Amino acid sequence: MIEQLLFYTFAILTCGGAVAVVATQNVVRMAFWLVVSLGSVAALFFLLHADFLGAAQLLIYVGGTVVLLVFGVMLTASGPYTTIKTSPAEGIIGGAVGLMLLMVLVSSIGSVDWGAISGRLPASPESPFTADSIREAHAEESLVNAGSTKAKTDLAAVQQQGRTVRQLGLSFLGLRPDRNLKEGGANGLAPGYFLPFEIVSVHLLVVLIGAAYLARAKRRAVSEDRVSLD
Amino acid sequence: MDFEALFKQFLSGDVAQQASILRSLTIFLPELVLSSSIVLMLVARLVSLDRIIPTHWFALLGGMTSFVIVLFQFWEFGNSQTVPVEVFTGLAIHDEFSIFFRGFLTFFLVFVIALTVLTGIPDDEDAPDFYSLLCGAVVGMMLMSSANHLLMLFIGIEMASVPSYAMTGFLKGKRRSSEAALKFVVYGAGAAGVMLFGISLLTGILGTAQFSELAPRFQAVFANHAGMQDPATRCVALALLMIAVGFAFKLSLVPFHFWCPDAFHGAPAEVGGFLSVGSKAAAFALLVRLTTSLAGDGSGALSQLSLSSGLGLGLIAIITTTFGNLAAYSQRNIKRMLAYSTIAHAGYMLMAVSALLVLQSVQTDLVFQGNHQENGPRAMEGLLYYLCVYLFMNLGAFAIVALIRNQTYSEEIDDYKGLAQQVPVLAICMAICMFSLVGIPPLGGFYGKAFIFASVYEATNVHWFMWLVLAAGGLNTVISLFYYLRVAKTMCMDSRPADAVPVTLAASSSPAMYVMLVSGMVVFLGIIIDPLSKVALHAAHALF
Amino acid sequence: MGEVGLNAYLMVGAVLFVCGVVCMATKRNGIGVLMGVELVLNGANVNFVAFSRYTSLGLDGQTVALFVIVLAAAEAAVALAIALNFYNNHLTIDVDRGNELQG
Amino acid sequence: MPETGDILMFLLTVAWLLPLAGFVVEIYWLCFSHRLNKGAAYCAVACIGIGFLCSLSALLYWGNDTHWAALSEPDHHGHAASHDTGHGDAAHGAGGHDHDAHAGDADQHSHDQASEHADAPAKKYYSGTYYELARFGGLRVSLDWYIDSLTLVMFTMVTFIATCIHIFAIGYMHDELTEEYEDHEVHLHNGGHFSRPGRFHRFFAYLSLFSFSMLGIVLSGNIFQVFIFWELVGLSSYLLIGFYIERKSASTAANKAFIMNRVGDFGFLIGMMILWTSFGTFQFGDRTEGAHTEAGLFTMVRGHDGKLDVSEDGKQVYLQDAHGHRAEKNGQPLTISYMLLVAAGLGVFAGSIGKSAQFPLQTWLPDAMEGPTPVSALVHSATMVAAGVYLAARFYPVFTPEVLLGIAYIGCITLFIAATIALVVTDIKRVLAYSTISQLGYMMLAIGVAGWGAALFHLVTHAFFKSLMFLCSGSVIAGCHHVQDMSRMGGLRHKMKITAYTMLVGVIAIAGLAIPGTSIGLSGFYSKDAIVASALAYSELNPGHILLFIAPLVTAGITSFYMFRLWFLTFAGTPRDAHVYENCHENPSVMTTPLLVLAVLAAGCAWGGEGGPLYRLIVDSETVPAAARVASVGAAKVILPSHQGHESDVHHVHSTAGMLALVSAIIGMTLAYLLYVKKTIDPNQIRQQFSGVYDFLVDKWRFDSLYDAMFVAPVHIISAWCVSFDKGVLDPILHSAANLTVLTSKWDRAFDETFVDGLVNLVGTVTYNVGNSLKVIQTGRLRQYVMWIAVGVIVLFGALFTTIPK
Asked: Pick from D245, D785, D800: which is nearest to B241 by CB?
């Protein structure tokens, strides 16, 4: 009951914040509503038992990305340009297209019977979420009788309670204690994420170089440029 | 599980058909070499080493080393009993197809670096930044070509795109450059967002993100439920559509091509050449891998999926090619014209993918001229051959644009009048590239097109719609003749206005040599077809 | 009040996504457009995490979401740098002023 | 001792490649060293001259080797063929060569299947592969060669004529040997003339390239290779027509020729695709690889007895393998639909229409006379346009009777139209151009009525006398300082004796005059005679197609009339323009010697008529024997006349046809004499009385206006549609009316350009305009682009939803 209440509160905050971001014309207020919306998403993550992710969302998004954007707002919001108004016509067109898009999404996502689909899937090797367990999880939030051993139930329970940090960390090293890879064989359903974990660091390095290059002032005079197309 | 056991598993990772972490790292040596050359460049600037050794040597060295390693891997595949293997616990795949593209991309990287050295677009001060971005983007593209997991797909696309955004805006003092970069980044971010949303839906429904598992799971979920009335089917259709939007952005397919002309127009010609070839090739590799793994063995529900997506791509290909060719007509800026030509060529190449899917949807009882099981690989062979030719002809065109720009400060086609009198080398090479882009025999472009059209023709046996695709391809080849020839005509037939900036380029200078080498390769691929087409066919077989 | 199911979360994700797209398509302020990007990516992330809890996707969903957050941050950095660059050259952040390239 | 095939291949390859070497040398070496001397010319002449010697020796060697069996009476044909096959066997035995020389011959096959095909006619050709480029599935792309007596004759003829023309051009292009060549046709704004460095070496380089490509067509062993050289010929003729590129007329003519040819090539490509997909090979001849023999195109269609193997219901044609059996694949006989075979034939013939300037693509050839006169002689009279006829003749085995009927009518229409236009033209070169089109029509007609030998016979004789006449006209033009209008000439025979009388030889030859009562005449008499006889035989067997006989007969008279008109106007009578006459002079011997040599050949090359050596040599390589009557099987019921032997259909009517043609020619000549020499009838009076007809002819049958109406008017409609499309696409909220105004004015301008530049720019303009309207979508507004993402997703999803309804 309390979970439902929390869900609806944060869901409304998330959606309301997002709508407010669209509706507001002042960029500073937009930034505020963005913080509200993204913060509520973090709360939703907690509700989904993804504690680490929720924390990361708060730290990286609300603490990092949005601050970056606010910096951008401050650097560019000089004088009359703080509020650049969208003309009403464009707003109406945008709204109409948005509503149509939402209809498309809702009509195709909203009525899917996820339980039935999962039921048709082949079972993951030693996955704690077999089709049966899902229905039961729906029914009573219980993981008992999941048809698996005690150890696995523990593991699943740990996951359901949101303590996923250790597992996430291990999966970044290419290890998946939550699934038995040896018996999974060719199925290979539970990859470790060693490669992306490492390669993202290269990506971040490159991206920061690029961002720094674009942001810093050119030290030489512009007139010396070889190319003058403008 | 205790730590020791975990650590052992980390090192060995002894799952069948998967390489251990150490083996994976060896296989990933080309990417690692490129990454470390990025670090090396930055360190060199830190210790002012770049004043003694110009930065581009690091980049060139890195590129060449990776290419050599890829060559070695290719040789290894050809010689020993090496089999395709999943690396990094199934996130990437190592087979002839990925080796082909990694080789393609590193080879291309070396050529692009050489071009930038010759045209001098990043000056000494900015060189580490530029080459870092370049190498970083190529690493991303290489990941795309070997991805075996939807997350790797997304990471690869992001890694290839984000540095490209920065490179587009590399001339940061220029209004147009910054405008182009902004349009590119916003459009790219939007498309990536849509794609990610699609990925989230697909993984949610199928419960996995690994390519090799998609087809069996799709089969299991939709064994008897393949109608649009079923919300799950609708949802999958939407998910695939959204993923396709991401690809359409990368490949600049109509109606998701809007960024392309503007970005190419505003970006330096070198970057344009890089984007037009590199990211297209990687995106095609990824698209082909994703679609073939989705199509699976083409039985049951998969057959319908394969046929519908093949026809859909065929329709998009028709529209894209026609649009690109028509819109290229009235362009005055050569980079913009080449951008539209890029769009059109993406359409031609998409025809190969479309033919592949349509052919794959029918697995049996198709008796027509030769072994039908060869048809799929043949379609891929056409695509790969086309990409290789496209590398040289497009790079050649952009290189010539860059070289002329360095002297005339102009990229308008009208300012190319009569260049044949002053720099015959450039004019001839440009003409070769243009003729090849049209597809006039005996240049390389002709054979690429011929292969693709041949496979589309095979596909007409499966579905009548492919006749339309074939007709559109043929018709477009004819209408593209005019605008390509216009450039050649402007350069060769018109006389140079008296007040035009004179252009000089000795035939023995290194830029001229470079241009001659590249356009020479276009001619070469039109005359000696066999070796490359064999390699391409070999690589294509890895997919089936 | 019924059970909070997977579909409820997916609806939140869809709303976030649509708001993001509309934001990108209507905001004239470049920074506002970038905020739209963040909303779109968050919409997808909500989906991932929800699937992670309710379907056999399991931990993979969370991992992907984590990477998306990182990639989004990287993209935002570059996008912001480009936007600032645009501002430096055009002396405004109004994206409608960038219309030199067309046709 | 190498085999015959090897030696022939070697000699012809040398003859073929020398011009290419010459081209390279002329372009690069001479370009950088000394452009103002005649080195390039000597180089080109040497290359083509040695080529001629090689071809001639190849011809002689071949004749020697076969003991000139081809020249003996055709009734002993079978005997002669088996006689010469002893050598072929030796060639066949040697498989160890890098190119697999293969001499197909009756002897070999009669060994293999003596019981089944004892009466299989001889196939006397040598073929092989130079280099195999690649092999993709069923498709082999390679450089092949194919040599039979036709190849040898064509080689000798082309190289000989080219040599004469090269030598002539040394004199004709002498003006270009200067740093400051003043082009009097190009008027600059300041009233002066355009001046540029001379292009002497460039001219000869192009000529060499052209010779190389033309010889490449003749030597090609597969149709794909033909296509490549076909395009190369197109390219080099484009370069040569546009030699005076600064003249607007020249560049337009070059474009027109190029585009008209592309239209034909489109058909050619379609034909090629059909052939490839149905036959799986491009090869003409059979090809032996180890023990396995792969059948070539001709064998597959016609087998060894020259007959189509049509199924009962007439809808399928069974293909034959190399051993004369029905080809099989996986137990199923290989077939091709009869209609597809017709389509393939028509497609290939479309290529010939373009290249040989047949109706309806004939309009480019007269315009192509903008090039220097030697070019006209080489490219647009004797050889290049003949390539179309050559191709049609080469492909004769693949043509079904329906296709042949189409060819016959195309030829018939062309020969009549062109001849009538030639009646009223006053430009000396254009008269010759129209006569070329007309004569090509004759050749096509001959092919269509199964007069295969007659067509090629006329091809060779025409090449000689037409190049002679073109060179004569060139000599006149050079002598008169670039005056081309016949109405300003007259009486020139007093000043240019050699030119005048060599020209007379050509005129008599083309008119087909002979001494009545005997069969002694110049070359044109014999060949035209052969064609008219074939046509008569054909129309007797197929009375419904009597027009195919009437038209050539009447046109023979018209031809004679306008050719004599040309000669009388130019050389006879009194000078009409004193200025021209005063300054006119005979040309140096470098130009007149080729005239004399060509005149001798134009007069005598067909010596002996259809019993003479030339005709025998040509007919010897006939792939499908016309000895027996062949009836069609398809939709059109026609019977092809038989040709060889004393009992044949053609022989019966030969003397009748000859008489009629001769009478017609003499009437034409007499009329011309009365009109232009005796002046008993005033030409101007006739012109006024028939002003309608006259204007019609001067307008070239209004073809240009017709094409305007056919192609330009629809553009109106399409472009109107495009405009409305524009308006629909423009978002009224986002786009101001100004945008539209600019666009409309662009359309206006585009319209003007469409009308001015006509057909040539047509396709370009339409697409340009459509493209221009597409620009509107690319508004340059970022937010709209993003909006398109969303709209795109929605629309595509809607499309999915509606198209996959299940």
From this structure: D800
**pLDDT at residue D343 in the model:** 86
Nearest alpha carbon to residue B225 among D806, A121, C6: D806
Kindly report which listed range (B498-502, D310-314, D413-417) carries the lowest average pLDDT score: D310-314
Interface check B382 vs A, CB under 8 A: no
Least confidently predicted of A10-24, B407-421, D235-249, D781-795:
D235-249
The strand pairing partners of D381, in sequence order, are none
B136 vs D289, residue with greater confidence: B136
Angle at which helices D384-394 and D338-355 cross, to 10°: 160
CA distance to partner chain B, nearest, from residue A5 (Å): 25
Pairs across A and C, CB distance < 8 A: 246
Domain borders along chain C are 28-91
Residue A118 and residue A83 share a domain: no
**What pLDDT is recorded for position B2?**
59
Alpha helices, DSSP H only, in D66-147?
77-83, 85-93, 106-112
* Closest to A219 in 3D by CA, of B172, C10, D140: B172
Host domain of residue A132: 114-187
- ipTM rounded to 2 decimals: 0.89
Closest Cβ–Cβ partner in D775, D780, D786 for C25:
D786
| Element at B246 (helix H, strand E) | helix B231-251
CATH number of the domain within which A64 lies: 1.20.120.1200
CB D507 within 8 A of CB D470: no
Please judge whether C21 and D779 are an interchain contact, meaning their C-beta atoms are less than 8 angstroms apart: no
pLDDT at B166 over 50: yes
Separation in Å, CA D643 to CA D184, D452, D524, D622, D627: 54, 9, 20, 12, 5
Q: Go through A195-215 and write b for each residue having 16 or more CB atoms within 10 A of its CB, e for each that does not.
A: bbbbbbebbbbbbebbbebbb
Let me know if D52 is exposed, middle or buried by CB neighbors in 10 A (0-12, 13-18, 19+): buried
By Cβ distance, the residue of A212, A220, A230 closest to B176 is A230
pLDDT above 50 for D115: no
Question: Do A79 and A8 fall within a single domain?
Answer: yes
D735 token code pair = 């786009």
Is residue A198 included in any domain, yes or no? no
User: What b/e readout covers D379-389, taking b as 16+ CB neighbours within 10 angstroms?
Assistant: bbbbbbbbbbb
Instruction: Answer for the pair D52, D15: CB distance below 8 angstroms, yes or no.
Output: yes
Mean pLDDT value across residues D649-659: 76
A230 in a structural domain: no
- Residues A16, A57: one domain? yes
Q: Which residues of A touch C87 (CB under 8 A)?
A: 75-76
D360 upstream amide cis, omega within 30 of 0: yes
Cβ–Cβ below 8 Å for B308 and D136: no
Q: Which of D386, D395, D435 is nearest to D414 (CA)?
A: D435
In a domain, A61, yes or no: yes
Contact present, D524 and D511 (Cβ < 8 Å): yes
Is A119 found in the same domain as A75?
Answer: no
Cβ of residue B315 closer than 8 Å to a chain C Cβ:
no
pLDDT band at residue A179 under the 50/70/90 scheme: low
How many domains does one find in chain A? 2
Number of neighbours of residue D690 by Cβ within 10 angstroms: 12
Whether A132 is in a domain gets the answer yes
